[in-house]
Amino acid sequence: MDKTNQEVPLPDFHKQSLKNNVYHFLHSKRFILIFVIILVVLAGSGITFAYLGMSTQSHYNTSQTAGKAQQDKFAQIMQELGCNSQESCMIACVKPENHEKCQRMMQEMGKGGASGSTDHMNILSKFNPSDVPPITANAIDISKVFAISQFRSGAGHDYSYGSWDGETCRSMKHYFNMGQYQVNGMPKRSTPGPGEANINIYSPFDGTIIANESEQTPIGTQVHISSAKNSNYYVRLFHIDLLPSLSVGSKVKSGELLGIIGPKDGMDVSYEARLSDSKVVYLSIFDYMTPQVFVPYAALGYKPSDFILTREQADAKGYRCNGEQFSNNHNYDPSNGQSVGYIYLRTNPYMYLYNHNQPYQQGQNRQNQSQ
Predict the structure, then answer these.
(1) Is 30 among the domain residues?
(2) pTM
(3) Which one of 64, 150, 221, 224 is separated from 258 by 20 to 30 angstroms, measured CA to CA?
């Protein structure tokens, strides 16, 4: 078993979507600002929407938490921003020329009124590891997994924005396998061929689907599930095809089938919580798996720590980032053709899709398939 700790970026289709690029904004103070603005507007018209397990009717009653004067101020700044929807306000606040207006709203929130308690917004006042809900089921059919990236690795892209403890320039999630199928140079969802089957994706705990977002590359969607045990904590499952019977608001049980990915595809898993200071707690699912869930890995001779780099180990790697992309990592080990930064559980059955005769370039290290 190759337990290499070297890192590798993945192809472009593992980048976050335009909507998920806004993800960086979603975890900033400006998001909380815009989120409250939208809640005020929607609550005033009786509309309900869910994000991170919240709705305007059940979790945010504006008539109780914000006075008319503050509602007027929110509406005035929305008018100044030129936005009238959740999407348009989020985008407006990303623009540098609007930062001052958004900051004014943050100051208004800080006076009490709409900010008040953060309990209704599923935001933690502080992080306590003992409160983290356990992972009670594997999110993917482990028998179909050949490689898993380490938490805090340099695989894929930087996934650390707003980290509560200041960690940066590292991937604080796990990739399971890696997408290897392309058509005319573009990544596509693979379909089963002779002797192949799709890979099942499951809910890692009892919970509620709180978001189902599009990805930049149209390979599945990003599904968020909040824990029924503590809804402050949620898992993101990237690039999966959600079952048609499931949608935002659906209650799911631990181990319940959520959807699929193709036989040559990969998916990502992130475990997170948001703090009241707009920071994000990033967790490794391997730190919180029950012993029963970890049995398939233990049977292969692994320990939970094999899938996690410590902060000190990650710091020692000397990662460098250019935006959200790693700028100083290598893609694969020429001696064995394996992507580095991964724990290999078994041999990659689709190694023939790789083209190792050319140096790695982002998104171009796989052979093209023709339609």
Answers:
(1) yes
(2) 0.67
(3) 150
